[in-house]
Specification:
By secondary structure, the protein is an alpha/beta fold. The chain has two domains: about 140 residues, Rossmann fold, CATH 3.40.50; about 200 residues, 3-Layer(aba) Sandwich (Rossmann fold). Helices cover about 40% and strands about 15% of the residues. The protein has 16 helices and twelve strands. Strands 2-1-3-4-5-7 form a six-stranded parallel β-sheet, with no helix packed on it. It has a four-stranded parallel β-sheet with strand order 9-8-10-12, with helices on both faces. Strands 6-11 form a two-stranded antiparallel sheet. Strand 8, helix 8 and strand 9 form a beta-alpha-beta unit. Helix 8 packs parallel to helix 14. The N and C termini lie close together (about 10 Å).
Length: about 375
C-alpha cells in the first residue's frame, strides 16, 4: 500500500476495520461527527493537495455519534463542489460492519435515482453477505466483495446461553416478527397464519418496535445484564425456546426472484439455542447456509420452499409445513438432535475463524487498490 495514501472515513473507532488499521499501523482519519455545511465541501477541503485518497463511507447511522455521510452526499447540494467530479481523485469504498446489503436494497426501493447515482460513482462495495442476481443487476457498475458475515462474530453470538435452556414445550412453534412498512412479506405470512388458525399452536409476536418490545427479556435477565448489550435483538428469549419445538424466522431480505444472502440474528438465535427452524427469506437461503457448513432439516420437513423464486409460494409451503407438523413437533425436535448439535458447534467454529478471515480479506483488498 502506498505510504502517502490518505484514508478518510465516517466509521466509528470501534469498527473492525478501524481495529484492523490500528493494529496494521495504517494511518487514517475521521470525518467530523457534526457539521453545518454540505459534507462534500468538508471532503473537498480534507483531501485538498492529496494525490492518493481512499474514502470509506458507511451505510448505517449511529444516533448521536455520526452523520449518515452517503445519504448526505446523495441528498445535499453544494454551491462549490460536485462529488461526482471529486470522485475521479478518490478510491471510493462503501463498507459497514452490518447491513450493507439490506441498506442498499432499502435505498434502491425508497430513494428514487439512488441506484443510478451510485452506479455513476462506481464504488467498491464491501458486503456483509452474498450479492444476488437482482442487486447485482441494479448496481451493475459497483464492484462487490463479500468480506464475511459479521453476525457470526463471537461478540454477536452467545452459544453459552444453551446452558440456560430447560426444554419443556407446551406449543409447537414460535415466531417473532417486527412489523415494518418495507417488510410486507411478514404481513402476508401473518395473514396466512391467522387464516389457517395456527396462532393457538404458536408463541407469536407481530408488532412494531416500541418500549415493550424487549419486556420479555427484562423478565428473564437482570437489568445489569441487559444494559450490557448494545444489540438486544441478539439475545434469545429463553422462555420461548423452552416452551416450543420449532422456530419460524423471517429474515429482513425477502423478495421475488432475488437470491441475495444476508445472515442475521434471526438465524443465529435458533442455532445458538439448538432449535429446529424454518426461515422465510430470499431464494436459496438454506442452500447458502449449508455452504457455510450448517445443516438444515430437509429430512424432517419440506424445505422445497427454499427453491421457490416467488415469496407467496415460499409462504404457501411453509404454512403447509406448519399444518402437517402440528402436534408432532416434539418428535421432530428429538429426532433432529444430531443436526442441532452440529449447528451449534459450527456456529462457534465460524465465530472463531471470523476475525482471521476478515483480516486476511482486508490484506488482499489493501494490496490491490
Amino acid at each position: 500500500m502506498a505510504k502517502n495514501r490518505f484514508i478518510l472515513t465516517d466509521l466509528l473507532i470501534n469498527d473492525p476495520l478501524c481495529r484492523y488499521f490500528n493494529f496494521k499501523n495504517i494511518e487514517f482519519d475521521f470525518l467530523p461527527s457534526e457539521y453545518d455545511v454540505p459534507v462534500v465541501d468538508i471532503i473537498a477541503d480534507r483531501i485538498k493537495g492529496k494525490e492518493d485518497v481512499v474514502l470509506i463511507l458507511g451505510v448505517n447511522y449511529a444516533p448521536g455519534t455520526r452523520p449518515f455521510t452517503l445519504k448526505q452526499l446523495y441528498e445535499q447540494v453544494s454551491s462549490y463542489n460536485d462529488f461526482k467530479k471529486l470522485r475521479s481523485r478518490i478510491t471510493l469504498i462503501i463498507y459497514d460492519e452490518y447491513d450493507v446489503l439490506l441498506r442498499l436494497n432499502t435505498f434502491r426501493d425508497t430513494k428514487s435515482g439512488f441506484d443510478s447515482w451510485l452506479n455513476d460513482l462506481k464504488p467498491l462495495v464491501l458486503t456483509d453477505g452474498k450479492v444476488g442476481d437482482v442487486l447485482r443487476k441494479d448496481f451493475k457498475d459497483c464492484e462487490f466483495i463479500n468480506i464475511g458475515f459479521p453476525l457470526l462474530q463471537m461478540k454477536t453470538i452467545n452459544p453459552e446461553f444453551i446452558t440456560l435452556k430447560k426444554h419443556n414445550p407446551n406449543r409447537d412453534y414460535m415466531c417473532l416478527m417486527v412489523k415494518k412498512p418495507n417488510r410486507d412479506f411478514r404481513l402476508r405470512l401473518h395473514e396466512q397464519i391467522v387464516a389457517r388458525d395456527l396462532e393457538k399452536e404458536m408463541i407469536i409476536n407481530f408488532n412494531e418496535i416500541s418500549g415493550k418490545t424487549f419486556q420479555d427479556l427484562k423478565g428473564q435477565f437482570q437489568e445489569r445484564i441487559i444494559s450490557n448489550f448494545s444489540f438486544l435483538h441478539s439475545i434469545p428469549s429463553i422462555e420461548y425456546y423452552n416452551q416450543t419445538n420449532l422456530e419460524l424466522g423471517t429474515e429482513a431480505l425477502c423478495s421475488d426472484h432475488d437470491n441475495t444472502f444476508d445472515l442475521s440474528e434471526k438465524t443465529t438465535k435458533p442455532i445458538m439455542m439448538k432449535h429446529p427452524f424454518m426461515m422465510l427469506a430470499n431464494k436459496d437461503f438454506l442452500k447458502n447456509l449449508r455452504d457455510l457448513g450448517f445443516q438444515t432439516f430437509h429430512e424432517h420437513l419440506d424445505e422445497s420452499y427454499d427453491d421457490e423464486p416467488m415469496v407467496d409460494r415460499r409462504i404457501e409451503i411453509i404454512i403447509k409445513n406448519l399444518i402437517d407438523l402440528k402436534g408432532r413437533t416434539h418428535k421432530l425436535y428429538e429426532d433432529s438432535k444430531e443436526i442441532r448439535d452440529h449447528n451449534h458447534l459450527n456456529l462457534q467454529h465460524q465465530a472463531g475463524e471470523w476475525g482471521t478471515k476478515f483480516w486476511q480479506t482486508m490484506d488482499t483488498i489493501w494490496r490491490n487498490i
